[in-house]
């Protein structure tokens, strides 16, 4: 009976906890373990929750949760022993007394009954397996549809009793045919302890489709790789052990006709039931970025609603809702307050259909086949290729051991080339626009701090950054195209081996590439990596992937100091980041996350022409994020920096310069030419003095000694300091700090080149620029990235860790480059 059925004051001993996943774990952690005694403290018929005492603790459970715990009660026990005593005539036959430990023994025994359901495609040998195991003689036929309803058989092995049910064969678990519905209802209503998924080894691709759906449902299962004799005869090679490791489900070869492997199969059923099986783990079929986002949103809504039955996986319900599954829709409809969920679901389906140009059901089906073909690509070698689809032909080249790499490198090169070359034109237009706005405001506003704030602080700061919007859009155009077409999955596939050398997994590759766009979504994309170790490393090294926010800094400095070799220097930056990431990943793997990783499936979805709509949506989302950042953090930082640099207005030394300028202007002894020259020089000194004495100058000077060995003056120090908010801010800070006189029409690069320190030495040299670019590449990931890491790792410690390690690394690298470079330059000169 169920725990919820025990009345106040009654006792029971736990037989087993049903349900799945997190729920089950929580209940077991509360002390509801097989063989333990539970006392009902209070169970009033309409009261919820119910109060229990278990293992000395008082706990309360919701009625619906208690209904998923099977127990033996005293009355049940008494009834059983009475019937037994009629035959044994034991001495205390009618005393009615029993011992607690006897009750426990009964519960333990009952816990050794395992309910097993056989599920598989028609004609894969389920009934044969059932017959062999249970000794029954059901009709076995070589045509589908023979098993109309479920048959039950019982047998024992190794002290466990198996109650197996032979279910009708199905290809899928959608609700189209009566068989499919029947099997699904059985899984939900009967809650078998373990499912045996019988798979026809001679037709893996089609048979594993059902397996993916069972994975979605999150049932505990064992796969019987049946018709193993056929597989061996065919000469195909199948590494079922490595597939088992990837999907976290034991796979046991069987030949149900002869009984080969069936004992081993049921032994595995026992270890899965007892949760001692070494490879047992729950994996997700990854449906790809777009679909996953919607699935997750629905899953969260279902979770928030809170009325969904514990026996259902919410992820499964979300998938089925998107699939427009009638049964699941009706079920969700029957729950209270689910109208908004269903409405959202309809909206989502429509959006997805427009984006993907196919209905969601097809999209999900394709993704499942992608999962299967990825899994088989790694584990299955066909003796001879039967039929080839265009996807297979393309994959022959693209995922080829040798050819794959040049193709991949070409695509990467093409992507970056296009990002920078094509981006130049719109960049110039925007630059021009920003300048016009600045001039307009300059001409039409009265002099004063407000005008200075608008022109130099806001338009200068934000304008300096907004020009890079086109680059970012183009980069995302490529990334979205590669993702949606299915190529990115192949790239991950061929990178798998290399990634393993870094202690990562092929799946880490996509977030790393995305990191070139923006580290924040990239860090969120690590969710698809199952193994926590790989995931953590991928997250922690992601800031070394040079995101597009650092691009403005490179473009500015290479433009000013490496105009001839701009592309080479850019490439150097990106590859330094990658190289450092490799080294750091290896170190982390060695010292922080040394546990061995579990293998998992790399999906190979069929190729598809991405729709322009889905790509535009992706691009628009990124643009929105970028503009958001612009309006938020960059705007605030610009205003703050401008303010800190603008005040205090008046200083002693400043007044002296002013009177000197006046003096020069009113002088009669100097020629006009001499006059302007002296005034310009005095103005320069005055401005510099003002900047140095401004608040920001003081902060910069305070931290500058720590950065001086890297070749940085106080202005660079200040811009690096403010760049912690977001790296684009480095450029906007420089452009605010280098406003100079509003009369001259120098561009920012020209001003950087011209800037001299007190001794008249240039502040920026190519070596300084290089050191600064490297520093910007490595140091402090922006605030948003740190927040993303804290969120995803669920620990602020990793956020702190990233800050510390990146800043240290940046200092060391820049120091080495600057000092070695200076020595080298001295030698040459
Ligand atoms: P069901 O539809 O899944 O219940 O499949 P059946 O048990 O009715 O078997 C279908 C056919 O496959 C029968 O002709 C069986 O004899 C045959 N069969 C079952 N298991 C095996 C096996 O392991 N190897 C081979 N070669 N044939 C098998
Ligand atoms: Mg059958």
Automatic annotation (TrEMBL):
SMART domains named among the record's database cross-references: FeoA (SM00899)
FeoB-type G domain ranges (all copies): 113-275
Positions that bind GTP: 120-127, 145-149, 166-169, 226-229
Bilayer topology: Multi-pass membrane protein
Family under the similarity heading: Belongs to the TRAFAC class TrmE-Era-EngA-EngB-Septin-like GTPase superfamily. FeoB GTPase (TC 9.A.8) family.
Function: Probable transporter of a GTP-driven Fe(2+) uptake system.
Name used for this protein in its record: Ferrous iron transport protein B
GO MF annotation, one: ferrous iron transmembrane transporter activity
Binding site for Mg(2+): 131, 134-135
CDD domains named in the record: FeoB
Source organism (scientific name): Macellibacteroides fermentans
Record's subcellular location: Cell inner membrane; Cell membrane
GO cellular component terms listed in the entry, alphabetical order: plasma membrane
Pfam families: FeoA, FeoB_C, FeoB_Cyto, FeoB_N, Gate
Spans traversing the lipid bilayer: 402-420, 453-479, 541-563, 569-588, 626-647, 767-790, 802-828
């Amino acid at each position: 009976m169920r725990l919820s059925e025990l009345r106040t004051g009654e006792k029971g001993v736990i037989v087993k906890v049903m349900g799945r996943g997190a729920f089950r774990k929580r209940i077991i952690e509360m002390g509801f373990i097989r063989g333990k005694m539970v006392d009902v403290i209070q169970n009033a018929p309409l009261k919820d929750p119910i109060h229990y005492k278990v293992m000395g603790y008082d706990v309360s459970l919701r009625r619906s949760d208690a209904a998923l715990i099977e127990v033996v009660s005293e009355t049940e026990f008494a009834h059983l022993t009475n019937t037994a005593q009629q035959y044994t005539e034991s001495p205390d036959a009618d005393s009615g007394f029993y011992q607690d430990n006897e009750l426990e023994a009964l519960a333990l025994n009952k816990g050794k009954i395992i309910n097993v359901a056989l599920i598989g495609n028609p004609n894969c040998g389920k009934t044969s397996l059932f017959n062999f195991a249970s000794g029954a003689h059901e009709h076995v036929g070589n045509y589908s549809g023979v098993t109309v309803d479920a048959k039950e058989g019982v047998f024992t092995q190794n002290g466990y009793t198996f109650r197996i049910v032979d279910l009708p064969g199905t290809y899928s678990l959608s609700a189209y045919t009566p068989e499919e519905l029947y099997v699904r209802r059985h899984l939900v209503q009967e809650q078998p302890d373990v499912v045996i998924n019988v798979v026809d080894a001679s037709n893996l691709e089609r048979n594993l489709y059902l397996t993916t759906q069972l994975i979605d449902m999150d049932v505990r299962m064992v796969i019987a790789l049946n018709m193993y004799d056929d597989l061996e005869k065919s000469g195909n090679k199948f590494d079922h052990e490595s597939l088992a490791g990837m999907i976290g489900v034991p796979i046991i070869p069987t030949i149900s006709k002869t009984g080969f492997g069936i004992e081993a199969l049921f032994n595995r059923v026992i270890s899965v039931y007892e949760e001692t099986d070494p490879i047992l783990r729950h994996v997700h079929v990854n449906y790809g970025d777009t679909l996953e986002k919607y699935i997750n949103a629905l899953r969260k809504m279902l979770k928030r609603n809170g009325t969904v039955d514990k026996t259902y996986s919410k992820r499964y319900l979300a998938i089925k809702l998107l699939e427009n599954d009638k049964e699941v829709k009706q079920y969700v409809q029957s729950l209270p307050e689910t109208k908004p969920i269903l409405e959202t679901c309809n909206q989502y389906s429509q959006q997805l259909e427009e984006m993907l140009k196919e209905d969601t059901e097809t999209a999900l089906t394709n993704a499942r086949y992608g999962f299967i073909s990825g899994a088989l690509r790694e584990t299955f070698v066909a003796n001879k290729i039967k039929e080839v689809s265009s996807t297979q032909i393309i994959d022959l080249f693209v995922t080829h051991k040798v050819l794959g790499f040049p193709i991949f490198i070409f695509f990467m090169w093409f992507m970056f080339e296009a990002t920078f070359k094509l981006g130049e034109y719109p960049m110039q237009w925007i630059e021009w626009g920003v300048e016009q706005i600045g001039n307009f405001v300059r001409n039409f506003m009265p002099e004063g701090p407000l005008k200075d704030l608008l022109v130099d602080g806001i338009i200068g700061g934000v304008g300096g950054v907004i020009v890079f919007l086109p680059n970012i859009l183009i980069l995302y155009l490529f990334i979205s195209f590669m993702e949606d077409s299915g190529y990115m999955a192949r790239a991950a596939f061929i990178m798998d081996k290399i990634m393993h050398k870094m202690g990562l997994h092929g799946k880490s590759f996509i977030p790393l590439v995305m990191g070139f766009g923006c580290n924040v979504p990239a860090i969120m994309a690590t969710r698809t990596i199952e193994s926590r170790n790989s995931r953590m490393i991928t997250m922690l090294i992601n800031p070394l992937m040079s995101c597009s926010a650092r691009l403005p800094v490179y473009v500015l400095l290479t433009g000013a100091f490496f105009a001839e070799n701009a592309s080479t220097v850019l490439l150097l930056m990106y590859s330094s980041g990658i190289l450092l990431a490799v080294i750091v990943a290896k170190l982390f793997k060695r010292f922080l996350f040394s546990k061995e990783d579990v293998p998992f499936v790399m999906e190979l979805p069929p190729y598809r022409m991405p729709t322009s709509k889905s790509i535009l949506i992706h691009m628009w989302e990124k643009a929105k994020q970028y503009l958001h950042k612009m309006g938020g953090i960059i705007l605030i930082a610009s205003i703050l920096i401008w303010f800190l640099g603008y005040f205090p207005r008046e200083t002693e030394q400043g007044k002296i310069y002013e009177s000197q300028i006046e003096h020069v202007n009113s002088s009669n002894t100097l020629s006009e030419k001499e006059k302007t020259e002296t005034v310009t020089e005095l103005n320069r000194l005055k401005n510099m003095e003002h900047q140095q004495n401004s608040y920001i100058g003081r902060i910069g000077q305070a931290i500058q000694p720590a950065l001086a060995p890297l070749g940085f003056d106080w202005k660079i120090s200040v811009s690096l300091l403010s760049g912690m908010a977001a790296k684009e801010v480095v450029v906007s800070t420089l452009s605010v700090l280098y406003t100079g006189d509003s009369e001259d029409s120098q561009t920012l690069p020209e001003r950087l080149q011209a800037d001299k320190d007190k001794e008249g030495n240039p502040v920026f040299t190519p070596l300084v620029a290089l050191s600064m670019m490297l520093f910007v590449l490595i140091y402090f990931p922006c605030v948003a990235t740190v927040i993303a890491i804290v969120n995803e790792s669920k620990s602020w410690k990793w956020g702190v860790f990233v800050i510390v390690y990146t800043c240290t690394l940046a200092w060391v690298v820049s120091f080495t480059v600057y000092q070695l470079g200076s020595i080298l330059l001295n030698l040459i000169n």
